[in-house]
Design a protein that fits this description.
homodimer; 277 residues; alpha/beta; Rossmann fold; Pantoate--beta-alanine Ligase, Chain: A,domain 2; 2 domains; globular
Chain lengths: 277, 277
């Protein structure tokens, strides 16, 4: 497996990689969720590039940029085992050189949910993803359903800006107790980690209610809220029943919905989601 | 020469074009300025694509989108004569489909000069140029120095977003009396057309003053203003002495500068520029 830091090295190494090329963009701190993306790319593509870059522009001023877990040598080992041909780990200075001033920004899709609670987050995401796409020039790019809104936003960006590639969104990978794999799970103490299972319990309870005939958006939100209330360490930030394409919050009767939520445990913010219908 | 309308057709036709591929993005109404770009691309590239698209998102609400000259059959003939292999003339609906919501936007470079007087103009330009780049995937793209700020903005976008291509900026092509070639010259009546030569006379007078030792930014602006004042049909909108890279307005002693101006003649707005030093 080849490892490069600079964009010029990446472009040179890119020349000898066969098509179709699959890109797995990550912020490092790789877990089984990321590895499932790399393995999927390995199955579907002739070559696989993994980017490792903790992108500062998608963190808010009071978020966890400084604390975000970083372990390059472990990430390289895991990426190689999962089947990466090339890892690109750029420096911040080269991604955002002096005078940098170009931003890619979406409108309605970035307004609700994560966008509402993390102003500027998606501007950072879409800008860096556009840069990764242009630098790597993949035919396919792999994203996790864990960040459901991010997946929808990136899909829309690809259509709107005519990027010549396909977005593949892969299922959430969960721990045995249902907790969605996340690099941020590492922040949790043992009580919080135990409590974190309430996110998936809440989503599952709403999905069961839906399966049993509950179609009222407020009813489904109420099911999630009641389950969350059973966990004293959980401080819910939002509980959403939204249209899976537009991400607009739904009212009344629901046929198909993205159930999603953000919950704080101490200083740690966790998100999870499930689609019903 | 091949002519395509839809993006899928473009992508299919693109497959058989040799690299390096040169793209000449235009809004049609081709004149000798555009043709100089196509000929330059023909000299430097193995294949040449010309796009013809009057991009609605770069026109302000009260600008000349509806009146902008359109003559597809003439443009096709001129593009072919100048050496284009493929012309891509997309429809507005396909470039901006329902739900379109992704914008590419620059900060400081788009604020002065044209950006100040045409709010939203450069957001439309950078968004459509990013789309053209992604759809055509050229190795080189050709722009005219006539739109000096546009050239600077597109260059910066290419660096910032890591587009894998080179921007080539070609000299302004002028009529015998010095008027810069522009599709908008077609709006001028014969008196206005005669008067339009004052733009280049003003730029040339300032360049001569610079050559003769005038280094004060205000002095150079004054030379341009005095020449413009001699033409009763000319209504100057701005007269600028700016840094050629940052486009920031200069004060005091000047070593190198972009001299630029925008002048109304009736309902027609003309721009021109010259670099000194």
């Amino acid at each position: 497996m080849n490892v490069v830091r600079r964009i010029a090295e990446l472009r040179a190494a890119r020349e000898s990689l066969a098509s179709p090329l699959g890109l797995v963009p990550t912020m490092g701190a790789l877990h089984d969720g990321h590895l499932s993306l790399i393995r999927r790319a390995r199955e579907e593509c002739a070559s696989v590039v993994v980017s490792l870059f903790v992108n500062p522009t998608q963190f808010g001023a009071h978020e966890d940029l400084g604390a975000y877990p970083r372990d390059l040598s472990r990430d390289l080992e895991l990426a190689e085992q999962a089947g990466a041909d090339l890892v690109w780990a750029p420096e911040v200075d080269e991604m955002y050189p002096p005078g940098f001033q170009t931003w890619v920004q979406l409108e309605s899709l970035t307004k609700p949910l994560e966008g509402l609670h993390r102003p500027g987050h998606f501007r950072g995401v879409t800008t860096v993803v556009a840069k990764l796409f242009n630098a790597v020039q993949p035919q396919r790019a792999y994203f996790g359903q864990k960040d459901a809104q991010q997946a929808a936003v990136v899909r829309r960006m690809v259509v709107d800006l005519n990027f010549p590639l396909e977005i593949v969104v892969c299922p959430i990978v969960r721990e045995a107790d249902g907790v969605a794999m996340s690099s941020r799970n590492a922040y949790l103490n043992s009580d919080e980690r135990r409590g974190a299972a309430v996110l998936f319990r809440a989503l599952s309870a709403a999905a069961e209610a839906f399966a049993a005939g509950e179609r009222e958006a407020d009813g489904l939100r109420g099911v999630m809220a009641r389950v969350l209330a059973e966990e004293p360490l959980a401080r819910p930030q939002y509980i959403s029943i939204a249209d899976p394409e537009s991400l607009q919050e739904l009212e009344g009767q629901v046929e198909r919905a993205l159930l999603s939520l953000a919950v704080h445990f101490g200083n740690t913010r966790l998100i999870d989601n499930l689609i019903v219908g």
